[in-house]
Design brief:
Length: 424
């Protein structure tokens, strides 16, 4: 249901257009790029969170929407700084880690070059108090769209938002990333129907604040899905250099292949359009199981059907190796391996590496982004992010925008992914 809602968000947004080393927790990775941005005393910190049930890769998309909105606020004269919400407690992270810093997963200085951003723990050090000025809880309009989707926002009584907060000693207590000593002075609900522009206007025109916490930020749509600003935000979301290196080492040492592709530039701003990347001599599939089997059932391929499609993809591109990114259990993977006529590789970190589940997932995505060809899972945001990575890395469209089909295509169909091409 959440994935279908995500697709609806994408559709609506299109109407108007087509870890760094973490040993030192106080290092400058989480600080602003002071060569590019100043941090005067009138800074306005913007914090946000999303519905607790949303997954890792949808949260990455929400970050882009909020980051674009913060950038637009700065263009309106607000000295806004985005506070990066700690990762953790996600359904697909079996280790249930919480309080994970962005620098363990992404290149924070790269994010910082798109819009000034700091880690949450740095905010707690820099801000005068761990008490937010207010919580703004975004909710949908109770009356719905009324046949026309117009951009609007309006302060209204809470429909259910206040149920997630408790007022004690004059302050509001909420989840707040699982920290017990963080509070808010005010709580209000805003019925919201709009995009990053609407959100930027809402904050810039209606609030003066030092710190504001926006809950249910997934309500915000993209102002221009897959437009220039979208891709600028997405290109700035580079992975941790350590995770990039780990993925490249796996390709070289485990799959035993070289990457035939143009390398990323030192800065994302210097990237240029290209379709010259060929990739390593292996294909990749993202094979969702677990909740997907329950949600989509016979619309997905069986294990034997998955093996048949992966073998055909490898044959099409003249390779004899395949990598699979999956949440399947080991028994399913071994059964899949029995049906394959090619060599299958999976990534399983060594215990001494101490890679959290989110980091392991990113390594898998990077490995897939360097493959000769990729095929994904139906309506999976994990697959969407790999497709974007391959666009950034300069692969031909036909090697990227594919999905695995149900065994009975005549009955269930197999609509292929839309080709959201990169724009510079």
């Amino acid at each position: 249901r959440m994935r279908l809602r995500y697709l609806l968000v994408v559709l609506l947004a299109c109407v108007g257009s087509q870890a760094e080393n973490n040993e030192d927790k106080t290092d400058t990775v989480s600080r602003l790029n002071t060569d590019q941005y100043s941090l005067p005393t009138d800074v306005s910190y913007i914090l946000y969170d999303v519905n607790r049930g949303e997954g890792f890769n949808l949260r990455r998309d929400v970050h882009m929407r909020v980051a674009i909105a913060v950038k637009k606020m700065r263009e309106k004269g607000v000295n806004a700084v985005l506070v990066l919400p700690p990762w953790g407690g996600l359904y697909h992270w079996r280790d249930r880690m919480t309080g994970v810093r962005w620098s363990e997963l992404f290149d924070v200085p790269s994010l910082n070059s798109f819009v000034p951003s700091i880690e949450f723990d740095q905010f707690l050090k820099d801000a005068p108090s761990p008490i937010f000025d207010r919580v703004v809880y975004l909710q949908h309009f109770q009356e719905g769209w009324n046949g026309e989707y117009t951009m609007k926002s309006e302060k209204r009584p809470c429909m259910d938002g206040d149920q997630f907060y408790e007022k004690k000693d004059g302050l509001w207590k909420g989840w707040f990333y699982g920290l017990s000593d963080v509070r808010a002075r005010e709580l209000e609900c805003v019925s919201f129907q709009g995009d990053a522009d609407t959100f930027a206007d809402l904050l810039a025109k209606n609030y003066t604040f030092q710190s504001i916490f926006v809950d249910r930020a997934e309500t915000i749509l993209h102002a221009e899905y897959c437009g220039v600003e979208y891709w600028r935000a997405r290109r700035s979301m580079r992975y941790s250099k350590l995770l990039e290196a780990r993925a490249e080492r796996f390709i070289a040492e485990e799959i035993n292949e070289e990457i035939d592709a143009q390398p990323l530039t030192e800065r994302w701003e210097d990237e240029k359009a290209s379709r010259l990347s060929k990739g390593g001599a292996y294909v990749c599939a993202h094979w969702r199981r677990r909740d997907f089997v329950t949600a989509y059932g016979t619309g997905l391929p069986s294990i034997k059907g998955t093996a048949k499609q992966m073998t055909a993809l490898a044959k099409e591109y003249g390779v004899k190796k395949a990598f699979i990114a999956t949440d399947a259990d080991e028994e399913e993977i071994e059964e899949l391996r029995k049906h394959l006529k090619i060599t299958l590789y999976t990534f399983r970190p060594n215990p001494e590496e101490k890679l959290i589940d989110g980091a392991s997932a990113i390594v898998e995505q990077i490995i897939c982004s360097w493959a000769r060809a990729f095929t994904g899972s139906y309506v999976s945001t994990f697959s969407f992010r790999i497709q974007e990575d391959r666009e950034i890395r300069g692969f031909p469209l036909e090697t990227t925008f594919r999905r695995m089909c149900a065994d009975d295509v005549k009955m269930h169909g197999c609509e292929q992914p839309a080709k959201w091409k990169i724009i510079y």
